[in-house]
Predict the 3D structure of the following.
Amino acid sequence: MVKRLFRRRAEPAEIEPEPVAVAKGQPPDPELVEPLEVLGPDAYEALRTSFTAAVSHELRTPLARILALLDSASLPGADVPDLIEQARAEVEQAGELIDEILFLSELETGGEVVALGATRAWPVLTEVLDHLSDRAARAGVELRLEGDEGLELPLRSRMLRVVAHNLAENAVRYAGHGSTFTVSVDRDGERVMLRGADDGVGVAEGDLPRLFERFYRADQARASRGTGLGLAIVKHIVASAGGVVEARGGRGEGLEIRCSFPV
């Protein structure tokens, strides 16, 4: 098994998940969204209303914060440059949320291709961890890569990049200072495995099955960071490529996300 440790780079660099693709016409993953053709009018309307309400709520939060920051900027003695920077961060957060909503929508409607051939995983995983090394260092999270350098996964390279980025970013945001995040790729019998595991704060066991729901956050500490869509996107990509994703761990025991694909 090959191991690699990623340390902080001289200059920060970040990548954004690229909208890529499920061949056109490919049905959505039944575990994530019930096919529209089998939904009755009432069920479809309830689904649409629920999703619209969730999106509205998620967008309302950064907009309310921006308004509060602008109001604060008009007060005597306000630190205007700092408030502007905070407002800028909120705008970027809202933009990230909108991008991920659109990306997930494309996945669910079959407008994006996920699996088209296979990709050697090691170079893509190396690139992702290298780009996140500065953010990880600032968060006090060590990044590691382990596994078989020659193993291929049944994903397009850009889709693999999205999955790896979302797994690593989740750990950087939530694992906690002093933790280690390890992404590994190896073979397990008749399946190939992509794992992202950290030894950080973890989540309650009761929350594990819900981590892949859209906009779900395990606790209040997570409520102000991230879009709540990263792991939902991971599950949809993996499932669309014929794989299975699961979460393991517990409070104080870290978090492991396993992505399993048929050989």
